[in-house]
Specification:
- By secondary structure, this protein is mainly alpha-helical.
- The longest helix is centred in the C-terminal third of the chain and has 30 residues, at 148-177.
- It is built from 9 helices and no strands.
- It has helices spanning 13-37, 46-52, 54-76, 83-88, 90-104, 108-114, 116-122, 124-140, 148-177.
């Protein structure tokens, strides 16, 4: 299906909230990836600014996602006791669970209490990144809004940036482990 021949729907309030949640979520993923993939961005101060406000932006993303899900929940009259609901919305529910864990542990007390496990828990955000992408492709298929291509392009660029970071990290580790 080509985008040029597709009719774009106007966006609903729930779609707008989903897009806003996605935008805030992407902003939480950028600081480390930008610093590693594009080291010159450090001079701009943008990654440092994002890093300073990452926790607040992450919580904003979570609450926007909650509102997004709540509106769809109300509009579509989901049956929470029907297992099919969880299969159909697997990506959204899984992403929501991950974001909930991250939001609950997004405080100084959790960082101190969980220690090294806190960092391991935060790695789940990268799983959520892929689940959210799948969620957008799956749920918006056939009825894209004007925001859908922007959201897909933004999350895809973020994934490419993340994969670049993983590649650079791997190369750095290999160089450090080589005998001199």
């Amino acid at each position: 299906m080509q985008l040029s021949t597709m009719d774009l729907d106007t966006f609903s309030q729930a779609s707008l909230l989903g897009f806003a949640a996605l935008t805030a979520y992407i902003l939480t993923l950028l600081p480390t990836n930008l610093r590693i993939v594009f080291p010159l961005t450090r001079k701009t101060g943008f990654p440092q600014w994002l890093l300073k406000y990452r926790r607040v932006i992450g919580l904003l993303s979570f609450f926007l996602a909650v509102l997004h899900g709540f509106i769809f929940f109300k509009q579509r009259n989901f049956d929470l006791f029907d297992i099919k609901t969880y299969f159909v919305y697997f990506q959204g529910v899984s992403s929501f669970i991950i974001l909930t864990l991250l939001a609950i542990t997004s405080n100084d007390w959790s960082v101190k209490r969980l220690k090294k496990n806190w960092k391991k828990l935060q790695i789940l955000t990268y799983l959520a990144m892929f689940l959210v992408t799948w969620h957008i492709w799956d749920k918006m298929a056939g009825h894209w809004t004007y925001l859908t291509p922007v959201g897909i392009a933004a999350i895809t660029a973020t994934i490419v940036l993340f994969l670049g970071r993983v590649l650079i990290d791997r190369q750095s580790r290999q160089q450090q482990n080589q005998p001199k």
